[in-house]
Amino acid sequence: MDRAQQVLKRLRELADPARLPGMARYGIAVDTALGVPVPELRRLARLLGKDHGLALGLWRTGVHEARILAGMVDDPVRVTQAQMERWVRDLRSWDLCDQVCMNLFDRTPFAFEKAVAWSCREPEFEKRAGFALMACAAVHRKDVADEPFEAFLPFIERAATDERNYVKKAVNWALRQIGKRNAPLNREAIAAAERIRALDSKTARWIATDALRELTSPAVRRRLAR
After folding, report:
1. Which among 56, 66, 2 has a CA at the least distance from the CA of 34?
2. Pick from 196, 195, 192, 187: which is nearest to 216 by CA?
3. Which end of the chain is more exposed for a tag (fewer CB within 10 A), N or C?
C-alpha cells in the first residue's frame, strides 16, 4: 500500500458520515466526502509534513478531504503551473477551492499570474479560485509590494456583476482583504468599491456595500493607523 492509500485509510477511520448533511446544507459538495473535520485534517497534515509526491497521490484519489489534505501537505516550491491548472479544473466545491488557495496556491511563484488568469475564466469554481487567490495572497504574502494588489482591482470591478453566488462572494472577499492590507490599499479599495456601487447591478451594489461597511469601519481604520 503506497503512502497516499495509507493516509486515505486513516481518513476513513476519522470519518463521521453524520456530518455530511450539515456540510451539504452549507453548499459543500459531499458526493466524494467522508465527513472529516478540517481541524482533524490540519492535525494530520502536521504529522505528515511536506510531501509533494503524497499530495499528488492524495489528489488523484478524488476524495474530498484527501484533496483538502493534499493542499496542506504539498510543497509550494515544487508546484508547477501544469499542476495548478489540473487541480483548478477539478474543483467542484467552494470549500475545497478556498482551502487549496489559502494552504498552497497563494504561496507558489505563479499565484499572482494565476489569480488574474482564473478571474477571467467562465467556470464558476475556476473563477472563484482567481478571486480566492487574490484574497489569500493579500493576507499571507507580506513579501509583496502594493502594486500587484492594485493591479487586481480592475479585475474585481470587471467581475462585480457576476450574479453567481460563489463568484460574487469571492469578489467581495478579494476586495475586502486587499483593502485591509494597509492604508494606501484601503483608499484604493474604497475607491474601487464606490465605482462598483455605481454600476447598474444588484450584485455589484451588494459587493460594494458589504465591502465598504468593513473597509470604512472604525476597527479597520484603527488597525491601519497603527
Report:
1. 66
2. 187
3. C
Q: What is the pLDDT of residues 115-128, one digit of tens each?
A: 999 999 999 999 99
Burial class (CB within 10 angstroms; exposed 0-12, middle 13-18, buried 19+) of 8: buried
Please tell me the distance from the alpha carbon of residue 89 to that of residue 92, in angstroms, as a whole number.
8
78 — phi, psi (to 5°)? -95, -5
Residue 226 pLDDT:
85
Whether residues 166 and 214 fall in one domain: yes
- Side chain identity at 145, as an amino acid letter? A
194: containing domain: 94-226
Examine the fold and report which residue of 44, 74, 104 is the final residue of a domain before the chain moves on.
Answer: 74
Q: Are 220 and 213 in contact (CB under 8 A)?
A: no
Which residue in this structure is represented by grid cell 467581495? 172
